[in-house]
Amino acid sequence: MRPDISVLIRTLKREKAAYVPLVELGIHPLIKEKFLGRPILSLEDEIAFWYRAGYDYVKLQPGVTFNLSDDKKDSTFQKKLDGALAYNWANEGQGIVTSFEDLEKLRLPGKEEIDYSNFERVTSLLPEGMGVIGQYGDIFTMTWELMGFEGFSLALFENPDLIKELNNRLGELVLSMFEFMAQHDAVDILWFSDDIAFSTGLLMSPDVLRQYFFPWLKRIGELAQAYGKPLIYHTDGVLWDVFEDIIACGVDALHPIEPKAMDLAEVKQKYGQRLCLIGGVDVDLLARGTPQEVEAQVKRNIEIAAYNGGYCAGSGNSIPDYIKYENYLALIEAAKKYGE
């Protein structure tokens, strides 16, 4: 089957399309290399993987380096470069920004340092019918990770101006990336990723998110609407308390409907008329289950969520290197088998 970016776009708009598209935010390079049979060394290799695996798009990110380590502090901050595939743990205590003095020493990349060269090259390399998703994220995540979870939590009461200033600097930088991607002719779809929840609840209260997260998501949503490009939003976890906030920001599709956090059928029933749903195949099942179990889960998800459009098949988070390779193959083959 040849790629058709229009099928994915129609699905994200909750329209019935010719087939159920495959969608992933992140696939570990080792999985890609095993599938492709060679190392992923170039944009051409990246496109070749997504094309051969059956996706309608290649995902591109602006090239930017966040060199934010500070040997004097116990910080484990590391910017995630491929959609939630980093293994480092977030700092639970104090981060590298605990005061305005620390903030002034912080060296964030400048907008002029961001590399968009792959966006300029990609059109001439794409197979016919294939499109581009422009993706970045983590405004809120970088804010609290740079301060440490404890430090951020205390600052909510003791130093909210520090949070606001750091959040604004990070937000304006990431927003500039979406301004570029929204206006670029090569980009068909925008994808913002920023985790605000875990499997049992929100990371922080809705009020905190409404102050430091949702205003940025809304600005990105307004960009997407202004340039006529669907917006996907990624966050793990339980989202019942903020679904209306997410929708109000102009989000078209929600990823990844983590199975241990929310039931796909319930989300479809409550919000499927206003959100396209993406994912829902448990990563634990991909890691420990059998290909037959994976196939059954994909089939069930399609039956539950794709009957009237508005569903894309994929994992309930990402495709890490520790899953069984044969289970990843089972996922993509089952999506093609049952999604037509």
From TrEMBL:
GO terms for molecular function: uroporphyrinogen decarboxylase activity. It comes from Caldithrix abyssi DSM 13497. Pfam families: URO-D (PF01208). GO terms for biological process: porphyrin-containing compound biosynthetic process. This is Uroporphyrinogen decarboxylase. Residues 97-338 form the Uroporphyrinogen decarboxylase (URO-D) domain.
